[in-house]
Fold:
Amino acid sequence: MKTYKVRQRQWRVLVVQNWTLWTRKKKSCIQIILPQVMLSFVSAPLGTNSWFRLCGTNKEIFKTKDRLYAMKGGEGASSYAQNSTFQRDAIEASKEFIREAIAENFDSKWTKPTSPICIADLGCSTGPNTFLAMQTMIEAINFQFQSEGLVAQMPEFQVFFNDQISNDFNTLFKNLPQSRKYFASGVPGSFRGRLFPRKTLHLVHSSSSLCWLSKVPKEIMDKGSSAWNKGRIFHKNAPKEVVDAYATQYKADLESFLHARAQELANNGLMLLQIPIASDVILDSDVDPGKIFEVLGSCLLDMVRVGMVSEEKVDSFNVPLFYPPIKNVKEIVESNGIFRIERMRPFHVKNNVTFPTVQRLVLFYRAVLDEMIDQHFGGGIGDELFNRLAKKVKEFPNYMNPKKQKIDFIFVLLKRKPNLM
Structure:
């Protein structure tokens, strides 16, 4: 391993394997960990000298290959950064759960003043929501030390921001809070595989990310399968075989996620998760995200009829997203055996505040799906597709009726059992 001193006196650009990463400003830098090479650019909250290191990593750790979809980057009108207030509302709604979880389960005796408390946010996207979550957690830990009279023993904080390799880390790091009290690092890659050395993390956080699948189930793409999802882009109102294929893929993905975290979390380490789930009861008049995907699918079929896209392209397009029932999540965690469920509490996000207009709702879905649609259909259909979606949503008042919204989450607190694995 080699270490180099670098004094940063202006903006710099780092290009690594088709990546361009902007460092923030004087006396700060950023860390990016790649599957075969790690370039560390550590971003200090106050800092003196910046530094970086280049070292090899174990290739066997990085076997998982997800479809490299990420939220829409940049800070434009249809970007995730400008259209993620719904995800922010989910974090806001669970802030008290986070504070209580840390107050009741985080033990300062697990840390050392000379070693940082390491926190990973998995599925961070481009911000700014990830910064809110990290601030909430760090403030809760600081309060814990203060209430125990251990201010002098307060460790430093290292935060790892993780998302897919195609995530726009430029925007994320450009907007790091000036007042942050932690060192910030970027870790691109799938969170369904190993990302960190064994037992190096104290806390893991993930919000609104564990509903995404690593891939579309192969059965629903097979014309000869009873699970072929022809004419639909989601499992809403699909045959049981389609729903089962999605559920099976979700189970495999969550098991992989838990297995990786079981190796990376220290004994008694905590995982704080906010997971979108299926509502127990949904009336025909209720609106959940699945209904929006149904309408979006109908827009694509309309475009097939006028020759704008091919039917084959639509039949082969499916959104890799699954909202599990609570009992499924509980069963998967319990079967893992490494984590103890400390808390599993449902909560509701009211999107009448998040989506005050049809245009805001459509921009939200575009920020989430645009890259996926461009990769599958090729660029150029996005404007037409989402304009059609806006027109159809306007035809159904329930889509904007806050009393009809069904978007539920669970807050899950897991503690790693000691001396296992």
